[in-house]
Amino acid sequence: MYVGRETPSVAGIINPGAEGFQKLFFGQEEIAIPVHSTIEAACAAHPTADVFINFASFRSAAASSMSALKQPTIRVVAIIAEGVPESDAKQLIAYARSNNKVVIGPATVGGIQAGAFKIGDTAGTIDNIIQCKLYRPGSVGFVSKSGGMSNEMYNTIARVTDGIYEGIAIGGDVFPGSTLSDHVLRFNNIPQIKMMVVLGELGGRDEYSLVEALKQGKVNKPVVAWVSGTCARLFKSEVQFGHAGAKSGGELESAQAKNQALREAGAVVPTSFEAFEAVIKETFEKLAEEGKISPVKEIKPPQIPEDLNTAIKSGKVRAPTHIISTISDDRGEEPCYAGVPMSSIVEQGYGVGDVISLLWFKRSLPRYCTHFIEICIMLCADHGPCVSGAHNTIVTARAGKDLVSSLVSGLLTIGPRFGGAIDDAARYFKDAYDRGLTPYEFVESMKKKGIRVPGIGHRIKRGDNRDKRVELLQKFARTHFPSVKYMEYAVQVETYTLSKANNLVLNVDGAIGSLFLDLLAGSGMFTKQEIDEIVEIGYLNGLFVLARSIGLIGHTFDQKRLKQPLYRHPWEDVLYTNLRFAETVISAVSLVSGGMSNEMYNTIARVTDGIYEGIGMGGDVFPGSTQIKMMVVLGGELGGEDEHSLVEASKHWKRDKNEALREAGAVVPTSFEDFEALINVTFDKLVKSHVMLVFLYFLLLSKAMVAHNSILTEPHEFVEGMKKKGISSARTRAQMVPIGFLFLEVTKQEIDEIVDNGYLKGLFMLAQSIGLIG
């Protein structure tokens, strides 16, 4: 209960077979209460919780209550259910008393400690709790058999005293787990309680235990008591009141006898129930006059927000909706699709196409339209196990995954390369036709843009072997559609594309896309704006997704029915290569001697993975291939200017060529005999450091960085010298990344490819996956 405390009093909920958390309001905030599947688990998780409230039905209340009593941490068990077998109740009571534990109930509404917590449904709503001052402790202890009368008495006591400290309804069954006297004696030992109010009822002899306690002087605080049921004497026959125990079995069990016995034992007993409030007030005021009670200082209870649904119904607030739905409504007696009741859909014999027309297009299309939709679904339901969608579904199903996972794995392959071209085909065909382009102008304009014509082309079908599905769709449309202008235009486009290649036929995507345009335009039920919106949103690809789901589900069931094992792709169907991401390939470039070139090919092959390209005199020192990561240059002995074209200026001509190249940044051996060893060392360092460092370097790049070269080092003087001499062509410009004394070539093309292919997004997705998995 929130009103009088800052933290929840409920530690956990036990719901057999379920675990997790239950959302509940605590004041203005929502909190999550742990849910446990067993009593044992709950008690282990919350060792300080000592009260168990049992809301189970009478069929299982006894067993679960006994299980709770056997937990060492549980001190009190409250049983809400009525009708618990008396034999079970006796066993619970005996076990509880022998283990110094308390049972409240059966057939109780619970109890409340004002300002602290309540058990069960006692005290009613928040409004009643505030009205009865139960948000803070008072000075009165109250115990009753009747739960319903407890709420009435909380109100009565609050009007004439400073409120209750604790109230308990022990339950109205014949054998309650605790008695009136048990709680009165307990109240007598609580310093905050200054007086007790007891409400009994006819039937049973529980009140006489309180009479004995009063006579023996065990109670030294005032007790105001009343036993209800005095009207029973007005009936000629025995009367059974609401509770199982509210039945007089003789004079001693009558309300009159009990009231007289309590009065004689020292309790304050009114002459009637109507006078009960007055004697409670009188007793309280007397204690206050004697200084035995210091009335509780009244505090303002915290404001408890009204539940949203209650406030909306009362017209106090209005709340915005979170979802807009225009296609279906389930608030009435039966669901409606676009305003059409479910019963009408069944009674009028609507088919799947009709349901799609209602839910997708929000109107009832003519029967030829819905029949066409159904034909499309039938023709696109499956296309064998070898297409990408079916293959993915089969592999996933064979991995032991469930139906939904297998279906989704196949659906995720649908896109521009598989089944996702229907919308594009409709979009481009419509645009070309509406603009009056000839098939030639349309195809050639697409070619200039570098875009393949969607809906044209097939891996298997040819001009002399048309797709049967396309023929069936065209035949149906020519028979039933008012107009097939878009389809005829698509056929004209096909005629032109077949003149270029025999496999550029109108495929099923193109047929459905063009014919759907004819359906929308020819039905007269859609505006031009609506047609454009339908194509743009992706309705037509939705048709393929819906249809192919039938086949993918079938493939899933097929694999599970056949009990197929985990799929592993055969080795012989994979091209294995030694290429790595940043493969080291040598370019051997000879500027002078062809004979020496052959010698160098042999040398390089011995100490590296071989050459990529070998060039004679005049060759480009910087080949454009991104596969070349290291260059080997063999110059002449004396004279000539070719080598000095590798250096920055002509002033180096008279200097030693090797020295000039070394100063320019090249790796130059001290002698020709060391050439092979130096090539070997350079290659080894490239292999060991190049792959990982360059790969990590790539991942840090962004398009902005690449555009401004902000992250790349300036090209070496050696490269700049080459550029100034015009030896390095525009196609071979390289961004050079120095690692040690090596140059690792990272071309602009490579960087652009890495960025465009989403490497950086992949890194972000990988990082986010860590959190999402968590």
UniProtKB/TrEMBL annotation:
<feature type="domain" description="ATP-citrate synthase/succinyl-CoA ligase C-terminal">
    <location>
        <begin position="143"/>
        <end position="268"/>
    </location>
</feature>
<dbReference type="InterPro" id="IPR017440">
    <property type="entry name" value="Cit_synth/succinyl-CoA_lig_AS"/>
</dbReference>
<dbReference type="InterPro" id="IPR016143">
    <property type="entry name" value="Citrate_synth-like_sm_a-sub"/>
</dbReference>
<keyword id="KW-0479">Metal-binding</keyword>
<dbReference type="InterPro" id="IPR036969">
    <property type="entry name" value="Citrate_synthase_sf"/>
</dbReference>
<dbReference type="InterPro" id="IPR016142">
    <property type="entry name" value="Citrate_synth-like_lrg_a-sub"/>
</dbReference>
<dbReference type="InterPro" id="IPR002020">
    <property type="entry name" value="Citrate_synthase"/>
</dbReference>
<dbReference type="Pfam" id="PF00549">
    <property type="entry name" value="Ligase_CoA"/>
</dbReference>
<dbReference type="Pfam" id="PF00285">
    <property type="entry name" value="Citrate_synt"/>
</dbReference>
<keyword id="KW-0547">Nucleotide-binding</keyword>
<dbReference type="GO" id="GO:0003878">
    <property type="term" value="F:ATP citrate synthase activity"/>
</dbReference>
<keyword id="KW-0963">Cytoplasm</keyword>
<dbReference type="InterPro" id="IPR017866">
    <property type="entry name" value="Succ-CoA_synthase_bsu_CS"/>
</dbReference>
<protein>
    <recommendedName>
        <fullName>ATP citrate synthase</fullName>
        <ecNumber>2.3.3.8</ecNumber>
    </recommendedName>
</protein>
<keyword id="KW-0444">Lipid biosynthesis</keyword>
<dbReference type="InterPro" id="IPR036291">
    <property type="entry name" value="NAD(P)-bd_dom_sf"/>
</dbReference>
<dbReference type="InterPro" id="IPR033847">
    <property type="entry name" value="Citrt_syn/SCS-alpha_CS"/>
</dbReference>
<dbReference type="GO" id="GO:0005829">
    <property type="term" value="C:cytosol"/>
</dbReference>
<keyword id="KW-0067">ATP-binding</keyword>
<dbReference type="GO" id="GO:0046872">
    <property type="term" value="F:metal ion binding"/>
</dbReference>
<comment type="subunit">
    <text>Heterooctamer of 4 alpha and 4 beta chains.</text>
</comment>
<comment type="similarity">
    <text>Belongs to the succinate/malate CoA ligase alpha subunit family.</text>
</comment>
<keyword id="KW-0460">Magnesium</keyword>
<dbReference type="GO" id="GO:0005524">
    <property type="term" value="F:ATP binding"/>
</dbReference>
<dbReference type="GO" id="GO:0006085">
    <property type="term" value="P:acetyl-CoA biosynthetic process"/>
</dbReference>
<keyword id="KW-0808">Transferase</keyword>
<dbReference type="InterPro" id="IPR005811">
    <property type="entry name" value="SUCC_ACL_C"/>
</dbReference>
<keyword id="KW-0443">Lipid metabolism</keyword>
<dbReference type="GO" id="GO:0006633">
    <property type="term" value="P:fatty acid biosynthetic process"/>
</dbReference>
<dbReference type="InterPro" id="IPR016102">
    <property type="entry name" value="Succinyl-CoA_synth-like"/>
</dbReference>
